Amino acid sequence: MQPIGFLPFIKRERIYKRSSYTTVENACKNHNVLKVKAFIDSTQKLLYVYPYMIMPDPLATQEYLVCYVKNENSATGKHIASFSMARLQLQGSALKQTFRLTKDDIIAIEKKLVDSSPAYLLGTNERVVVKLTERGQKSYKTKLYSRPAKEPESSGDTYVFYCSPLQAYNYFFPFGKEAKIIEPTSLRERFKNSYNDGAAKYRS
Q: pTM of the entire structure?
């Protein structure tokens, strides 16, 4: 038998978090609502989760629960989301409450999965424009994890993407000076503030 430490991350997680996987898989099968604790915009929230399925990201490095969610105290309807199975914080077992995703609900999820990794289903995709140095372009070719797809309208060292701002932030932030965010302004400001905050620690 192969030692656990030598198994791929997903297989190890399925062993370490067997109870969570069993709860989620049964909820998907039996259409039970789950209750999950999650941080959204730096605020901890309790969410009702309507599970669809567990699926890996494109490189099979992690698995995600693809679902619909609704805030516990919100009057608004449910929306598409995903949670890393490695970091999923279930609040007890599945609820007795059951549900059925409609045909339109499922079509909406599948359509979003065409354009986005299961890691980035929460929120809407935006037009992201990034200017890359020569080294940055080489990094884009080789750094595959969470890489957003380059759009045909890209030209030269200016790359255009349609992805969530979070995906763009997580992917391009490690590029440092090799990547410059042009659009959207909100993402550009987030990069600027993050780099400034990091640099400030070395000024004192």
A: 0.78
